[in-house]
Design brief:
Elements lengths: L14 H7 L9 E7 L6 E3 L7 E3 L1 H13 L4 E6 L17 H12 L4 E6 L12 E3 L2 E3 H18 L3 E4 L6 H11 L6 E8 L6 H6 L20 H12 L4 E5 L5 H11 L3 E5 L1 H12 L5 H15 L3 E4 L2 H9 L1
Parallel strand pairs: 1-3, 1-4, 1-12, 4-5, 5-8, 8-9, 9-10, 10-11, 11-12
Antiparallel strand pairs: 2-3, 6-7
Bound molecules: ligand PBG.
The site of ligand PBG has 11 residues, from helix 6.
Length: 324
């Protein structure tokens, strides 16, 4: 039936009516806050390209973890900045490394906060690539062994969920096998399954000091135009034992969040990455748009597309805005 019988504006007349028919509601429960753990004590070093985001030493990470959980956010994901880097990133599986210490302290002081760890080599290698470099390329199978060591070290420290972000083939299966063989059957895997070689990671590489020193990541991260391939990547990761699959970045890939959710019906995470954060924050600081409204609109769109979990640097601010 058409106008004038149909008048969609009837249900938009005031906020009460709008609330009654609102289809998607963002909640603090949907959010995960990324944190950058660095060496030292009392360190809080702001990332120039991400105003309001800082690299923090373990003591400050604990304070942040407390505040984040108090704001209603159920989980954090940890990235490490090691004391020293080498060719194979051996600090990644140091049981006394920054991330490992942060996991233990959070689990002791804020036990109900879920701790996810990013499992990747790029923050730990001196060349900045996500694995072992042989003859100018990242060697897939040699890298698996290192990722397994890193994931096991995180599990020993008490991580609830490990999240491989390297995009090597077969890493989910390799990590699942190793976790199970070592008594960590209950540690879940959130796989960065459809992770694209994106320009939107720019600010993160300053935050995590992880820029590749030569070349780029296009031989392992996905080619942005490919949607069917993203579905295959998700399928392989689920076959290998992923508990949660991720699409990353979020905004330029909302169609894939939708497709993955429709196709598989499993828990889907989406990463609202550093570049997506910095664009809104910079425009907000300049008074070019209303940061709070823009953020809520963007994160709600990611949820509407099908994401169950949203990793975002806005997590604490948004959780406060939602409950305040
Ligand atoms: C590590 C990793 C990256 C991000 C998450 N894990 C960077 C990259 O792949 O270069 C990006 C996160 C962001 O931009 O917010 N491989």
């Amino acid at each position: 039936m058409a106008f004038p019988v149909n008048r969609p504006r009837r249900l938009r007349r005031n906020e009460t009516l709008r609330r009654m028919v609102r289809e998607t509601r963002l909640a603090p429960d949907d959010l995960v806050l990324p944190l950058f753990v660095c060496p030292g004590r009392g360190v809080k070093r702001e990332v120039t390209s991400m105003p309001g985001v800082a690299q923090m030493s373990v003591d400050n990470i604990i304070a942040e973890a407390h505040e984040t959980f108090a704001a209603g956010v159920p989980a954090v994901i940890l990235f490490g900045l090691p004391e020293r880097k080498d060719n194979i990133g051996s600090e990644a599986w140091n049981d006394d490394g920054e991330v490992q210490r942060a996991i233990r302290e959070i689990k002791e002081r804020v036990p109900s906060l879920a701790v996810i760890t990013d499992v990747c080599m790029c923050e730990y290698t001196d060349h900045g690539h996500c694995g072992v470099v042989r003859e100018g390329d990242v060697d897939n199978d040699a890298t698996l062994e290192l990722l397994v060591r890193e994931a096991l070290s995180h599990a020993r420290a008490g991580a609830d969920i490990v999240a491989p972000s390297d995009m090597m083939d077969g890493r989910v299966g390799a990590i699942r096998d190793a976790l199970d063989e070592n008594g960590f059957q209950q540690v879940a895997i959130m796989a960065y399954s459809a992770k694209f070689a994106s320009a939107f990671y720019g600010p993160f590489r300053e935050a995590a000091d992880s820029a590749p020193q030569f070349g780029d990541r296009r031989s392992y991260q996905m080619d942005p135009p490919n949607g069917d391939e993203a579905i295959r990547e998700v399928m392989y990761d689920l076959e290998e034992g992923a508990d949660i699959v991720m699409v990353k970045p979020a905004l330029a890939y909302l169609d894939l969040i939708w497709r993955v959710k429709q196709e598989f019906g499993v828990p889907v995470a989406a990463y609202n990455v550093s570049g997506e954060f910095s664009m809104i924050r910079a425009a907000g600081i300049n008074g070019w748009l209303d940061e709070k409204r823009a953020t809520l609109e963007v994160l709600t769109s990611i949820k509407r597309a099908g994401a169950d979990l949203i990793l975002t640097y806005f997590a604490k601010d948004v959780a406060r805005a939602l409950s305040g």
